[in-house]
Amino acid sequence: MKPFLHIEREGAVITARMDRPESRNALTKPEYFQEFVDLCQQIRIDTSIKVLILTGNGSAFCAGGNVKDMKERAGIFAGSPFELRNQYRNGIQRIPLALYDVEIPVIAALNGPAIGAGLDLACMCDVRISVTKAKFAESFIKLGIVPGDGGAWFLPRIVGLPRASIMALTGDAINAEKALEWGLVTELVNAEELDATAMKLAQSMAANPGHGLRLTKRLLREGQHMRLDSLLELSAAFQSIAHHTEDHGEAVNAFIEKRDPKFTGK
Description:
- The protein has 12 helices and 9 strands.
- By secondary structure, it is an alpha/beta fold.
- The protein folds into 2 domains: 5-206, 2-enoyl-CoA Hydratase, Chain A, domain 1; 210-257, Lyase 2-enoyl-coa Hydratase, Chain  A, domain 2 (Orthogonal Bundle).
- α5 crosses α6 and α10 packs antiparallel against α11 (228-243).
């Protein structure tokens, strides 16, 4: 069976494409979840990777779960309430934990609709760029269920609690223009421009020192739940590390000498 994630690499940028266009890249199998976890582990180990782009093949970014399996209580929706709880915890919930812990920038290139768990997956990324015809829905309530994979945590932090409440409590979809207005996405592009736009942004991030990217991303993550004084302590520790990297010295010299820096990752 071919992998769910088709992985490409261009320099320091990894592109992971969900590759089940026939099912609109629905998240339906434990093996799919494991691929996300494995990719995040690879990124943790390989410090030469600086940016991850997550996108999909076909007409949708990700359609969420398989409603037919829900109806039949099959696949990842089978079992008793106790078994289902563990299947969520040991299955799809491993994705937000793994992606949230990734220390490099993650760009979602939204090639089409992001629905339910697909929207939550997009919200796990740092930046979202969308095609103009995409739609977005926190649609769990329409199926009589709740956001089971972190959407109730991620979405309010991106669009604010009132707008997240509208999306989660109505389940209604919003179009790309509304998503831009609400800050869910940062840019709208035509479909043929999506890959190039995402790669341009990724390369502009990857042009910076890798250690600095990872430390800065970690500060942004930790700052969401730390007190200011605690974050300042962590910032001071990270800054002392950054000051002693070779790439910091190269960046300073290049700035003074008015030339492009050449970073080595050291």
